[in-house]
Amino acid sequence: MKLGWTLAQRAMADHYEQLAREHVAPRSEWHYTREQLDRQAWQAMADDGLWRIPVPEYLGGHGLSWWDFCAALEGITRGSKDLGFCLSLIAHAGFLRSLVLFGGRYHLEVALPKMMSGAVGSTALTEMSGGSDVAKCALTAYPHGDGYKLVGTKTHITNAPVADMFWVLGRINGLPAKRDISVFVVERRDGGIKTGEHEHMFGNRTSPTGPISFFGLPIGADQVLGQPGNGLSTTYATIALDRLLYGVIGAAYLESLLEDAMTFTAQREAFGHPIADYQYVQRRVTNVKLAIESTRWVSYAALGSLVDGREDAALLSSTAKLIGSEGLAGAALDVMQIFGHAGYEQSRHSRNVQDALGTLIAGGTSDIQRKNIFTQLVKLRKTVSAGVPKAA
Ligand SMILES: Cc1cc2nc3c(=O)[nH]c(=O)nc-3n(C[C@H](O)[C@H](O)[C@H](O)COP(=O)(O)OP(=O)(O)OC[C@H]3O[C@@H](n4cnc5c(N)ncnc54)[C@H](O)[C@@H]3O)c2cc1C
User: Fold this and answer.
1) Same domain, 244 and 377
2) Do 271 and 186 share a structural domain?
3) How far is the CA of 133 from the centre of ligand 1 (A)?
4) SS3 state of residue 56
């Protein structure tokens, strides 16, 4: 169980905080109003080696760990104060780890180098029929020559309008039902892909999100990630990281909100006293701190479990996602109210609420996290009662 960052990880977090302060924060509002991903800042992060951090050296990475990456991500969250930008990073991070875990030659030699060098990745599960029940996906790979042709449409996909690389969930035509779900890795330059306009979202507007359609796009058999038909387990392993990262960025993001709230409550007066003197106000401030601590530690627990390959990783990742997004949304509302009318104007505080609310849906809704937590509880209990020794 990790109880804090090493000195090197602290330095990593500080470095990326500074980088984000220089490259993301100054243009964040500009990109928000234009509903654009800051590609220049994205490239600056890639050039600095962000995506190489957790990738083994023999694959061209820096051979560090996902803990080091999380330290960097916390730094970026604090420095950028841009939740949308961080959501875009999370979509890319899960994809990257999936390539390292399950990748064959194509994924490791073609896709991974691009993903580490500035390409933008998208993780596409959701379809118009729904995002919660991903096993219902209809996108289909039809056997074609030595490979497949992809047909179908994904929707509400982070980064899709601008992405270069796509991690796509679908099914392989001809495989037995329920054993046909597979993951495909596709490059935009392959042709036969059309990404639509970005969707106009309530928040997270620096994270362009939209549809992607495949019109018989030819892909090689080597572009299937993991075993054909094994796409659901590839998916669960991939989204477990995404989910806990919501907790990581949630806690880091709230730190700056807490600072804003503490400063404001000490300065703003009502009834002849600073509002910090009032217990109802103190309650709102302490809510932010409680959200930070509860989110941070469960996210670290989830990451520890994930990187150690423990069987409670999925349960803890969903817990981190649920506590993280609900804590973030609740605390953003508290801070907005602390600022009174200034909080409700179009401002940093109202944007915080808009952005935070998106985390209740992205990465799976709170209901779905609860569903997963319950399913995992039942599964773990069965494992114990069957006498199977638990992994260390
Ligand atoms: C900012 C943002 C970014 C996103 N990025 C991506 C992305 O990169 N890739 C991607 O694939 N998708 C992405 N999505 C889509 C997101 O994953 C889905 O919106 C989400 O999974 C919910 O799916 P849905 O909208 O189709 O709702 P539905 O699945 O139709 O669910 C509707 C409601 O029913 C509830 N519900 C459904 N089934 C159950 C159940 N069994 N038990 C209890 N309640 C249930 C849900 O909780 C929800 O409240 C993003 C969404 C947002 C908001």
Assistant:
1) yes
2) no
3) 8
4) coil
300 and 331 in one domain? yes
Q: Closest ligand 1 atom, CA of 204?
A: 1
Of 174, 203, 229, the domain-final residue: 229
Q: Where are the beta strands (DSSP E) in 32-138?
A: 121-124
Query: CB neighbours of 371 closer than 8 A, spacing ≥ 6?
Result: none
Shared domain for 111 and 239, answered yes or no, is no
CA of 92 to the centre of ligand 1 (A): 19
Name every protein residue with a CB atom under 6 angstroms from any ligand 1 atom.
91, 123-126, 130-132, 156-158, 201, 204, 209, 358, 361-362, 364-365, 367-368, 371
CA–CA separation, 48 and 40 (whole Å)? 12
Integer Cα distance of 298 and 303 in angstroms: 9
* Same domain assignment for residues 280 and 152: no
Residue having the nearest C-alpha atom to atom 30 of ligand 1: 130
DSSP H or E stretch at residue 295 = helix 279-308
Going from the Cα of 18 to the center of ligand 1, the distance in angstroms, rounded, reads: 34
Q: Look up the domain containing 146 and give its range.
A: 124-229
Ligand 1, pocket-test mutation among 368, 369, 370, most atoms within 8 A of CB? 368
Residue 108 DSSP symbol: I
Tally of domains in the chain: 3
Per-residue pLDDT of the chain (392 residues; tens, 9 = 90+): 566 799 999 999 999 999 999 999 999 999 999 999 999 999 999 999 999 999 999 999 999 999 999 999 999 999 999 999 999 999 999 999 999 999 999 999 999 999 999 999 999 999 998 889 999 999 999 999 999 999 999 999 999 999 999 999 999 999 999 899 999 999 997 678 988 888 999 999 999 999 999 999 999 999 999 999 999 999 999 999 999 999 999 999 999 999 999 999 999 999 999 999 999 999 999 999 999 999 999 999 999 999 999 999 999 999 999 999 999 999 999 999 999 999 999 888 999 999 999 999 999 999 999 999 999 999 998 887 776 555 44
Q: Are residues 247 and 378 in the same domain?
A: yes
Residues 111 and 219 in one domain: no
- Tell whether 352 and 244 lie within a shared domain: yes
